[in-house]
Every structure is written in structure tokens, then in C-alpha cells.
Design goal:
The complex is a heterodimer. By secondary structure, chain A is mostly beta strands. Chain A has one helix at about 20; strands at about 30-35, 40, 55-60, 65-75, 85-90, 95-105, 115-125, 130-135. Chain A has a single domain, classed as OB fold (Dihydrolipoamide Acetyltransferase, E2P) (Beta Barrel). Chain B has helices at about 30-40, 70-80, 95-105, 120-125, 160-175, 180-195, 210-215, 280-285, 310-315, 325-330, 350, 360-370, and strands spanning about 10-15, 50-55, 85-90, 115-120, 215-220, 220-225, 230-240, 255-260, 300, 385-390, 395-400. The longest helix of chain B has 16 residues, at about 160-175. The chains are: A mainly beta, B alpha/beta. The interface between A and B is large, with 43 and 45 residues.
């Protein structure tokens, strides 16, 4: 079995604060707000940097690479007839305390381990690009 | 400690509970009045003595899912209470925030006898259908409402239930601490054993480890028996000024210290340490407010919306070392009624029903009073700890029989 996300998607409501995040997949790039003063990545979006209270925040690209911090295989049919899917919690490589709840896809659910390297892949729905993650080779080496 | 903390001005002098069950088909206000009148009488008071009223979470939270119970205006009006202080709300140190607010109101002189209640009718609201996810649990994009706020980060990925969010905590604990399903299962088995001695419990038939391990999966590592059971029921407490404690007809349960801190991020997915979450901060802040120590605790009533949460709380409250809770419950003997730290003695939310934190507070008082009947823990029992909440939501309370 190879994992996909849930067969039905609920989507975020886009606004001026979150649009950059949810549409980044349009050019294949995962972005987070980053503070121009202290260089912290900030997630979810807020108007000031929580680290230094600077207000020079702007969306900046990241590599799209991350690490599985935790995961769960959802089996419960919240929608009758739905297939199991893997919910992942992924830390981004640039700053591991920034995490995303996501789906782990293109992988064997039984083979997933915490600490696995993953890379972003986007799933397009209407005006939204959901960032999902699939297995990646470790940087500078093979699995 | 220098000056005694404010909560030591308060004691729980009355407790009451409505019928508890599956699909009782009674309204939330009906159940609430039963619980409230029982608590007032139990405290040796009449409704004319009640000058404060508090609830969690207040009316209208969670839509029509039977989650919120009636708000304070509805209860005040139904009982024609004359109030000097009233409060309802969902933000704060978990479900017991209403009890903690009552303690502080009493210490501040705003009220003398505060009626505090929590009512759920989730079983009737759920009806014959399955347990829903948040936001209806899915749906395509056509005509389905979109989500802002925290839910935008979870629902698009099918993380539609606290079961999913807390499963991430549990799985991380499997990884970091070598926790096993058999250890998790001891929390469920312990609840079921104790529920067998609680006439009001939802699920009283015996459950074996084989039964537990064979149950259908919900979201790994949680099976059905790792998730609490929606029910209908109302629990009420009378929190009084400590001056009244000696006049109350039953032994008062004195509030020795409360744990209210939230020092990490208020987030299910961004909390700095996924294995502890907010329980860590609430637990630490409670011990900062008392000279009692974890070794003084005789019994624990720890929130078990999911089986992992009592394990998180055992560590957060210093009742065992970090990462050691799995071993602490191994075999189940230590947390049994006759063990060194009896846990969730009425069956907890997993087997007795999801009374949402207040069932645990009620049971702490029952045990401290010595009124547990068949499930009364043997021997000396002077200090109980109660914890509510999971994820980024946490509150805790130390109750003592007799003034602290």
C-alpha cells in the first residue's frame, strides 16, 4: 500500500496573511514568514516577529526538505468509506521548531519512522496548493 | 513559600451529579438542574446561599454537538439565583478553569458560595451515528466551508479530530521513550476495572489485554479503547469560602494549590516539546504554590480523553520521572485501587464516560470523603491531585482532606 492523503479535502480560507503560504506551490516553493532582523522563521503568520518584535517580516523560500517529527495512520472513517491515510508532523530543515501537520505520501505507511527525511510535494485544489511530504534521500548520502 | 496562595481560601463543600449515560434523551438544562440542586443540598445550603455561578465552556461552544451545556444565564434564571459573581468561558487552564476562577473569586471577596457545573449531552447529540470529526470530518471543496485560524493547518490534511492531534504526541512517546501499546492499554484496563465498581459508569463489563489489543484502530497508536466515551451527564460542585468548611455536613475538600501556567506555545503542533505539551507547565506551576510534594499524593484523577494523557500527566506532575510513565503503569498494579497511586478510581472518561474533566474532580472529592463504596481506596488518603486537559490545554489542582 502506498499512502495518499484523504480522499476528500477541506481547504483553508485564503486571506492577506496566509495567501503566500497556501499558494506557494504555484511555483513549487514552500515559503514561511521570516524576520528581516533576527532571521527567525515565524509560523503561523503573525504581524510581528515573536522573537525580537521586529516588524520586517516577509515570505521567504525554504528548501522544502524536512524531517518526520511524528505521524499517525488515520484509520477511522470520518467520512464513510474513506481509505486510511498518514498524517505527518514535519519539522523543516531550516528551523526544526517550525512544524507542519501534513500528509506523508508516496510511501509505505508501515515503513515510516520518526526521523525520516522528507521533501515537499504540492497537491493543487482550486486556488490552494497543499504542501504534502514524500520520502527523500538524506542530504549528501543514500538511504 | 511565603504567603499562602489565594486558592487556599476555597474548599469544595458540595458535590452533585445527574444521571450519567448514553443517549439519555434529556435536555442539558434538565440534567444541569439535577446536578446543581444535588450539590447545593450536599453542601448543606439552599439556593439562597449561592452568590456565585461558573461553568466551562459556556453556552454555544462547539455548535449543536452537545458539548457546551447551558450557559450561566440559563441556569441562573432557572434557579432564580441572586448572584454577586458569575463567569463562563472556554479559554484558560482547561475545563477546571471554572473551578479555579471560583476559588479566586472567593479569595477576592467577590462571592462566598460558588456553584460550578459542567454538562455534556454529546451522546444524545451524536445519536446513532459515529463520532464526528471537527468541521464534519471532510467533504469536497464544492460548497464546503473553508477554515481559518488553527483549523486551517489541520483539517486540509484530514487531521480532523483531537484523536489525530494527540496520536502525534503518543507516537512521539513511542519513539523517544519506548512506550508500548501494552503500557497504554494498562490505562484503559485500569479504567475498566474501576468502572466495574461504579454503578454510573458507561462500560462496566470486564476487558482483557487481548480485548484491548484486538480492538479496531482509530488513528495509530490509538484503538477504540484509547479514546474516551461520549456520554450525557452533568456534574456540579459548590466551592465555598474556607470559613464555611467546618460547618459543611460532609468533609470539605480544601484547594491546596492550582496549576495554571502555559509557558510554551499555545499550539497543538508547535509546542516546543510534543511529549509534554502544556501539562508540563501547569504541573510545574502547581508545585510552585505549595509545600506539599509529589510523594504526598495519595490518589490521582488524571484527564483521560485519550489513554496517553494520564501518562503525560504522571510525568508533568512529578509523580514519576520524565519518560518513565510507561514503566510506571506496567502491569497495572501500581495504579490499581489497592496500588501505591490509585488512578481514575471511578473508571475515568475512557470507561465511565466523558464528563469532561468534572467527573474526575467529583471523584477526587468522593474518595477524599471516603464515600467511594465498593471502589473506595483502602487506607489513609489525605491528598488528591486532579488534572484536566490535553495538548496545549492544561490545569491541575491539589485537594486535601482538611485545611492545608
Amino acid at each position: 500500500m502506498s499512502a495518499n492523503g484523504p480522499s476528500f479535502r477541506v481547504l483553508p480560507r485564503l486571506d492577506d496573511d496566509n495567501r503566500f503560504f497556501w499558494t506557494g506551490g504555484e511555483d513549487g516553493t514552500l515559503r514561511f514568514l521570516r524576520c528581516g532582523s533576527c532571521r527567525q522563521f515565524v509560523h503561523p503568520p503573525v504581524p510581528v516577529c515573536p522573537a525580537c518584535l521586529g516588524n520586517d517580516l516577509s515570505p521567504q523560500p525554504v528548501s522544502g526538505r524536512g524531517t518526520v517529527h511524528s505521524y499517525t495512520l488515520n484509520v477511522q472513517e470520518w467520512i464513510p468509506g474513506s481509505e486510511p491515510y498518514v498524517i505527518g508532523l514535519v519539522s523543516i530543515d531550516e528551523q526544526p521548531d517550525v512544524r507542519l501537520i501534513t500528509n506523508l505520501v508516496d510511501c509505505d505507511p508501515d515503513a515510516i519512522e520518526i526521523g525520516d527525511p522528507v521533501e515537499v510535494v504540492f497537491e493543487h485544489h482550486d486556488d490552494v496548493y497543499l504542501p504534502l511530504f514524500r520520502p527523500a534521500a538524506p542530504a549528501g548520502g543514500t538511504r | 513559600m511565603s504567603a499562602a496562595p489565594a486558592e487556599r481560601q476555597a474548599a469544595i463543600t458540595g458535590i452533585g451529579q445527574s444521571d450519567v449515560g448514553r443517549r439519555l434523551g434529556r435536555t442539558e438544562i434538565d440534567l444541569t438542574i439535577d446536578a446543581c440542586l444535588a450539590a447545593i443540598a450536599d453542601a448543606g445550603l439552599t439556593r439562597d446561599d449561592i452568590d456565585g455561578l461558573a461553568t466551562y465552556p459556556g453556552a454555544g461552544v462547539g455548535g449543536a454537538m452537545g458539548f457546551s451545556g447551558p450557559g450561566t444565564p440559563e441556569v441562573q434564571d432557572a434557579l432564580r439565583l441572586k448572584l454577586d459573581w458569575h463567569d463562563g468561558g472556554s479559554e484558560g487552564p482547561a475545563q477546571m478553569k471554572a473551578v479555579i476562577a471560583a476559588c479566586f473569586a472567593i479569595a477576592a471577596g467577590a462571592a462566598r458560595h460558588v456553584l460550578v457545573y459542567r454538562t455534556v449531552t454529546e451522546s444524545t447529540a451524536q445519536g446513532e451515528g459515529g463520532r464526528p470529526g471537527i468541521g464534519g470530518g471532510g467533504g469536497g471543496s464544492g460548497g464546503v466551508p473553508r477554515f481559518s485560524g488553527f483549523l486551517q493547518w489541520t483539517l486540509p490534511f484530514g487531521a480532523v479530530s483531537a484523536a489525530n492531534w494527540i496520536a502525534l504526541v503518543a507516537q512521539r512517546r513511542f519513539h523517544e521513550f519506548g512506550l508500548t501499546r501494552e503500557q497504554l492499554g494498562q490505562v484503559a484496563l485500569n479504567g475498566r476495572r474501576n468502572a466495574g465498581l461504579n454503578p454510573k459508569a458507561l462500560y462496566r463489563q470486564p476487558m482483557s489485554m487481548d480485548d484491548y489489543l484486538a480492538a479496531r484502530m482509530i488513528t495509530t497508536p490509538f484503538c477504540l479503547f484509547d479514546c474516551d466515551a461520549p456520554c450525557d451527564g452533568s456534574t456540579a460542585l459548590v466551592v465555598s469560602h474556607v470559613d464555611y468548611a467546618r460547618d459543611a455536613p460532609h468533609p470539605a475538600c480544601h484547594v491546596n494549590a492550582v496549576g495554571t501556567a502555559l509557558r510554551g506555545r499555545p499550539s497543538w503542533d508547535q509546542f516546543d516539546d510534543m511529549t509534554t505539551m502544556a501539562a508540563r507547565d501547569a504541573g510545574a506551576s502547581m508545585w510552585e504554590r505549595t509545600d506539599l510534594r509529589p510523594s504526598d499524593v495519595d490518589l490521582a484523577q488524571l484527564y483521560d480523553g485519550f489513554s496517553i494523557l494520564p501518562l503525560v500527566w504522571l510525568e508533568a506532575l512529578g509523580l514519576c520521572g520524565r519518560g518513565e510513565s510507561g514503566g510506571f503503569v506496567e502491569g497495572g498494579g501500581r495504579i490499581a485501587l489497592d496500588g501505591e497511586l490509585p488512578l481514575n478510581t471511578a473508571g475515568g472518561q475512557l470507561s465511565a464516560g466523558r464528563l469532561h474533566g468534572f467527573g474526575l474532580i467529583h471523584e477526587a472529592c468522593v474518595q477524599l470523603r471516603g464515600d467511594g463504596g465498593e471502589r473506595q481506596i483502602p487506607g489513609r488518603h489525605e491528598v488528591a491531585v486532579v488534572a484536566n486537559g490535553g495538548g496545549p490545554i492544561a490545569g491541575s489542582m491539589l485537594l486535601t482532606r482538611g485545611p492545608g
